[in-house]
Amino acid sequence: MATDVVHVVDDDPAMRDSLGFLLGTEGFEVRLYEAGADLLDGLTKPAAGCVLTDIRMPGIDGLELLRRLRAAGHALPVVMMTGHGDVPLAVEAMKLGACDFIEKPFDDEALIQALRSALERGGIAGAADPTLREFVRRVGTLSERERQVLDHLVAGRTSKEIGRTLDISPRTVEIYRAKLMAKTRAESLQELVRWSVLGGLA
After folding, report:
1. Which is nearest to 199 in space by CA: 143, 114, 128?
2. Which sequence positions carry the modification called 4-aspartylphosphate (predicted)?
3. Which of 10, 91, 128, 173 has the least C-beta neighbours within 10 A?
């Protein structure tokens, strides 16, 4: 299908090649770009598929690329690739309208799943999404301390930083984190952040 086009933007040639190979073997039609400007120049309207872009790039970074795509009227779903510790950037990307983010180094299957989901949804999950409503309901069951830890996690803070702010040990933060992950049923920090942003909790 024409909609299974993935526009990959990454300034690292090795990463671009490996993504091109992986996605090609999965049956996607892959278009590779070294920079955000190349993608913006090459897109026609209405553009098909989705965009997979690194968040940290020289020149136009992932966030700026997302802003320019939206300003140009492109509604393509955008999946961001983020480095470890880029949670605040990922949150900003989601607020700007990215439909997902995936943290490097990522599992191939997780990436494929994120792209298929983006292509199927055609964009951001809406508030009507029953999974999202259920997540928001579960957040309502958190204790006050668990909710504080959740807010700090979504803000990109480490256990040490959270512990200092809340005047508890990093180990205690980890215990609260494990409890809130179990209560919200988020499988990863990435999922926790994604649902928190989509649910308007971040």
Report:
1. 128
2. 54
3. 128
